[in-house]
Amino acid sequence: MNQRKDTYRAALRREPDTAAPRHAKVARLHTRYVRVTIELDPALPRELGRWVGPPVSALLRAGAAALRPLTGTS
């Protein structure tokens, strides 16, 4: 049991091998039993804009088309 615990703790202390330099934003959470690393890609805003842009513009066009007859009859 102690050997397994020591192996686990050694694995937590060990840093991962990285060949390429990191350009991402990194947030780390270290507690006694949990170690979490979150990396955000710097191109994330561009990718979100590419994926979200067309549906949002379609919704805006549909909303404008629906409101056009309502505003024209007053």
UniProtKB/TrEMBL annotation:
User: Basic and acidic residues bias: where?
Assistant: 1-17
Report the domain of life of the source organism.
Bacteria
Note down the stretches annotated as region Disordered: 1-24
Mind telling me what this protein is named? Uncharacterized protein
Source lineage: Bacteria, Bacillati, Actinomycetota, Actinomycetes, Kitasatosporales
